[in-house]
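Lab notebook page, bench 4
Experiment: in silico fold of construct C2
Operator: M.H.
Input chain length: 110 residues
Purpose: comparison with the prior construct
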Amino acid sequence: SGGAGFARPFLDNGIAYTLLTGRVEANSTFAQWVEPALGAALGAIYYGAIGTSGMELNGYKFTGGEYRSNFLLTQNLVLARDHALQLRFKREWHNDDRFNEVSLNYNYFF
């Protein structure tokens, strides 16, 4: 995966961004074993007093016809220097399938 994009400040502590991406994936369910895809992402990150909030919408269209889209919300809560909790919600669409994911993670930065 790789791509290029543009970011711009918004509000006092936020950044909005957009990306155009490319991807090559090997998958036994594809018509061809290896397929390239083009995609795009649109998102925002806000740095607040208790941590970082994020939102992103992205999607890929593969040459064989498969598409994938994601909507992602994250909240990082700073506990102390180098320690944080992350709450994450993700909704995925793969052709006619839908998936939800909710997670709570502890992060230690070193």
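Observations: Residues 80 and 108 are 10 Å apart (CA to CA). The two ends are 26 Å apart (CA to CA).
Next step: discuss at group meeting.
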